[in-house]
């Protein structure tokens, strides 16, 4: 199977498979590592290898992960896994027409937000251990403006394009051998309407 650049999940079964808390954690860890075995992932998420293997198979059944290409594998004694796409997305309008879809969307979104909040808490806790350059480069901002739904959609599309452009530049530089000083960076954005705090 050739790795897709972008995949939009549109079926409830795949969203439910992806939305399981341990599977989200495994998928996220695998995305960071790029390739890993069940044993390696089990060690990182502190779970039994048999349980991790089961959940990896479930992710693979829905085409969310796949066996890594030969060049990325170790000694061949274990299965090596990799995400099946660079970017995985899902949109609320694909799931809100049925109670099952709406519930799966809510559960998945809630779990993703909890995991992102945990990562943010870990950054805040461990920030002093990072270099001054990384502390200065990190950001925590919020903005408030009055938009229409169309204006907000245009803004988020523009921001996504900017982020993708920077991702592609960083990836090209890394592939060209510029690996010095690179770290995993999570850029997490929320944009939503509200009426009162």
Automatic annotation (TrEMBL):
Source species taxonomy: Bacteria, Bacillati, Actinomycetota, Actinomycetes, Kitasatosporales
One Pfam family cited in the UniProt record for this chain: HTH_20
Domain HTH arsR-type positions: 13-93
PANTHER family: REGULATORY PROTEIN ARSR, TRANSCRIPTIONAL REGULATOR, ARSR FAMILY
Keywords (A to Z) from UniProt: DNA-binding, Transcription, Transcription regulation
Keyword Transcription regulation in record: yes
Superkingdom of origin: Bacteria
Protein's name according to its UniProt entry: Helix-turn-helix domain-containing protein
SMART domains for the chain: HTH_ARSR
């Amino acid at each position: 199977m050739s790795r897709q650049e972008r995949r939009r999940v549109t079926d409830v079964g795949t969203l439910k498979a992806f939305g399981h808390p341990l599977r989200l954690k495994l998928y996220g860890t695998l995305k960071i590592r790029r390739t890993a075995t069940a044993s390696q992932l089990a060690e990182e998420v502190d779970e039994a290898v048999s349980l991790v293997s089961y959940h990896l198979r479930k992710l693979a059944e829905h085409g969310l992960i796949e066996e890594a290409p030969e060049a990325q594998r170790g000694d061949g004694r274990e299965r090596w896994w990799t995400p099946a796409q660079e970017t995985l997305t899902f949109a609320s309008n694909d799931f809100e027409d049925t109670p099952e879809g709406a519930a799966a969307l809510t559960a998945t979104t809630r779990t993703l937000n909890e995991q992102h909040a945990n990562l943010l808490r870990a950054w805040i806790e461990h920030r002093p251990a990072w270099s001054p350059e990384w502390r200065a480069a990190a950001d925590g901002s919020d903005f408030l403006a009055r938009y229409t739904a169309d204006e907000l959609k245009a803004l988020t599309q523009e921001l996504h394009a900017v982020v993708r452009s920077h991702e592609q530049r960083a990836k090209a530089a890394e592939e060209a051998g510029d690996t010095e000083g690179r770290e995993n960076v999570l850029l997490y954005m929320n944009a939503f309407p509200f009426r009162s705090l």
